[in-house]
Amino acid sequence: MKKQFAVIGLGRFGGSICRALSEQGMEVLAMDKNEDRVNEFASIATHAVIADTTDENVLKNLGVRNFDHVIVAIGEDIQSSILTTLMLKEVGVKHITVKAQNDYHEKVLRKIGADHVVHPERDMGRRIAHYIVSNNVLDYLELSDEYSIVEIKVNELLDGHSLIDLDVRAKYGLNIVAIKRGREIIVTPPAEDPLQKEDILIIIGADSDINRFEKKVM
Length: 218
Ligand code: ADP
Prior knowledge:
alpha/beta
């Protein structure tokens, strides 16, 4: 059976989740209290309804508890976001993802049992900071407070060296999990092969170790 999603709040964030889920062929119920927003998604989502989700009866009548995953993407209105999340939890929705506006909002959401709290502006800001500081860092994904995955471009310093030469596991405690070479992805990179300029190394490890490696090879 197809997974069923509901998205509450069709601003930039919720709207883009709704579009992406629909493009992937998922069943999506799109909800917003604003009629214009709902009309915009009428032809994109499986169903689009005008609903104020801070009203418990509205949520019950829509059968929200039957959805596999509900995304709460109410932006500015923190009170509505918290109340909606609380009621989704109460009716027994299995999986709830909520967008937080700030750290206090996040704290409350976690307390009331949101399964996944996202902070898109903060996270994107951090991610972008990483690749504007260093020309060789192409992307950066935070796994936890301490661990990340980074994509680092092979420059003159690394060009021609093999993974054995670099020995990042022993020297930095890092793992090179894959190499992107043009359109190809090498998932278990042979340790003896020389790296080529423009290869992209996908590296996993502790942030402090990644920083040491970046400083050494940049
Ligand atoms: P973004 O920063 O993602 O663009 P917005 O604040 O613009 O976020 O969008 C949030 C959306 O959530 C708006 O379309 C707003 O109408 C909707 N929204 C706010 N409160 C409620 C509510 N109680 N029930 C349903 N939708 C709501």
